[in-house]
Design brief:
The protein is an alpha+beta fold. The chain has helices spanning about 10-20, 35-40, 75-90, 100-105, 115-120, 145-150, 215-235; strands at about 45-50, 95, 110, 135-140, 155, 165, 175, 185, 195-200. It has one domain (about 10-235): Rossmann fold (3-Layer(aba) Sandwich), CATH 3.40.50. A 7-stranded mixed beta sheet has the order 1-2-9-8-7-4-5, with helices on both faces. The longest helix is centred in the C-terminal third of the chain and has 21 residues, at about 215-235. The structure holds manganese (II) ion. Manganese (II) ion binds next to loops.
């Protein structure tokens, strides 16, 4: 709600990051509902799952922790379905913050619902600083899609999350970790449709074309373009 009016949309940083990378961003509202996914997915070349509310724990068979944040059942339903349909069609997916959590849940994994209370001794993963403040390190698996997209195997990242991956879903591999062991990057194994998921916010660096983080969007657009070419060649 903004000034008493219901709104739907995403932070401009996501749209600008896709544009910077040469893509044409379409913002999909969860209010569309899950009934139109076939048409939606048909019209897309790739999917970005953005940050936001906590995924409702019922989706991974857990009871709500007292420190669970806001949940949005309409958005959960829309995005879980959209992700499954996008995967079934082989679309490349870039999942960010809530996105990495949603993807993990959709594929059968679970989440820590509140890092500060459930993971004593963990680093601080939320803070009140600027959106581009890099507050903790991430070690990146050499040879991973994440390393390729970033062009590095170590990066300081921004961090605005109180949840994270607990049990990793089958079909995902860890490709980035914080020094406290929190999973900060996960991806599909080689041979599966391209899926890259990060717990930090690479879109916030859209003003800096040289930021390694923006490489995630460039890689998404590159993979989406290559897939489209293959599809076009196949169907004539
Ligand atoms: Mn973090």
């Amino acid at each position: 709600m903004v000034s008493g009016v219901e709104r739907t949309g995403v932070n401009a940083a996501y749209v600008l990051s896709v544009l910077n990378a040469g893509g044409v961003p379409l913002v999909l509202s969860p209010l569309i509902g899950a009934g139109h996914n076939a048409e939606l997915v048909e019209s897309l070349d790739g999917l970005v799952l953005s940050g936001g509310e906590d995924v409702a724990p019922e989706h991974y068979g857990a009871a709500a922790h007292p420190a669970l944040g806001d949940v949005d059942p309409v958005r959960d339903a829309f995005e879980l379905e959209l992700f499954r349909d996008a995967r079934a069609r082989g679309l490349p997916v870039l999942a960010i913050c809530r996105g990495i959590q949603l993807v993990n849940v959709a594929l059968g994994g679970s989440l820590w619902q509140d890092i500060p209370s459930e993971r004593p001794g963990a680093l601080q993963h939320t803070h009140r600083g600027g959106r581009e403040d890099r507050t903790h390190a991430v070690q990146i698996e050499p040879g991973s899609s994440l390393a390729r997209a970033l062009g590095t195997t170590r990066l300081e990242v921004n961090s605005f999350h109180h949840q994270s991956i607990r049990e990793l879903a089958p079909g995902l591999v860890v490709s980035g970790s914080a020094p406290d062991g929190e999973i900060e990057g996960a991806e599909s194994p080689p041979g599966d449709p391209w899926l890259l998921a990060v717990q930090w916010h690479p879109e916030e660096f859209h003003r800096d074309a040289r930021a390694p983080d923006q490489g995630l969007f460039h890689e998404l657009i590159r993979v989406a373009g290559a897939r489209k070419e293959r599809e076009t060649a196949r169907t004539g």
